Amino acid sequence: MLIDSHCHLDRLVEGDQPGDLQPILDAARARGVEKFLCVSVSQKGYPRMKALAAPHPEVVISCGVHPLDIKDGFDPAWLAQEAAATEVVALGETGLDYYYSQDNVEAQQAAFASHIELANQLSKPVIIHTRDAREDTLGVWRECQGQNGVLHCFTETWEMARDALDLGLHISISGIVTFRNAEALRDVVRKVPMERLLVETDSPYLAPVPYRGKTNQPAYVHEVAQFVADLKQVRYEALLEQTSENFYRLFPGAR
């Protein structure tokens, strides 16, 4: 089974009708994609995302607020209420982003900690965004005694990946790995154990080669998976089998 472990389906459609997602899901299914984790980024946008995904059993959802979106509103009480629902399989995406925003570092860290602590209470994994915040991201995770989670769209160093793996985290790889200037990331992928890898699109962003410059979509997770399989020097089918096993171990609520 091919799984897109991180996508933003609600940002791929303009309408508010659940049927608006069908062409996107059909195109992905035609290329072997059978499961989609639609990831929340904002409190304001969550109701629409949840409504769009609800009629599609192959789509599971997370609940959370991206570090760049907390400025537009983040209520821990809201998160606690929504994230407890059975259809929510993970908390996030949350984390730290010092690349685009350095004026609210303490607020980012507090929101990240809220997600982790609630995830621990609910026994659900955390989807983590990190950019230019390597030490603080893992530091908050340690301080809050995070249990299960994934560093999504990983673009950091092997040293961070190694430390994250030591903390029990998974590493998810997006289409960035196919970019011409991504050799350092490719070296990381070669080193990460197969049993801790996931693949994703992060669509509608970061379309892989040969679709660069186009709107990314879940169908393109095929290219990501094939590229990672080649890097790991394993059969494509073996990569799919392992990443699917990893996905359901990390997100048991997605079954």
Write the layout of secondary structure elements.
Layout: E1 2-7, H1 22-29, E2 33-38, H2 46-53, E3 59-63, H3 76-83, E4 88-97, H4 105-122, E5 126-131, H5 134-143, E6 149-151, H6 158-166, E7 170-173, H7 183-191, E8 197-199, H8 221-232, H9 236-250
Parallel strand pairs: 1-2, 2-3, 3-4, 4-5, 5-6, 6-7, 7-8
Helix pairs in contact: 3-4, 4-5, 8-9
Considering the chains and any ligands shown, give keywords for the structure.
255 residues, eight-stranded parallel sheet, 9 helices, 8 strands
Would you write up a description of this structure?
With 255 residues, this protein is an alpha/beta fold. It is 38% helix and 17% strand. The chain contains nine helices and eight strands. It has an eight-stranded parallel β-sheet with strand order 1-2-3-4-5-6-7-8. Strand 5, helix 5 and strand 6 form a beta-alpha-beta unit. Helix 4 packs across helix 5. It is globular. The two termini are 13 Å apart.
The gist of it:
The protein has 255 residues and is α/β, with parallel strands linked by helices. 38% of the residues lie in helices and 17% in strands. The radius of gyration is 17 Å and the shape is globular.
Structural class: alpha/beta
In total, the number of strands is 8
Strand content: 15-25%
Runs in which pLDDT lies below 50 for 5 or more consecutive residues are: none
Gyration radius, in Å: 17 Å
Task: Bin the helical content.
Answer: 25-40%
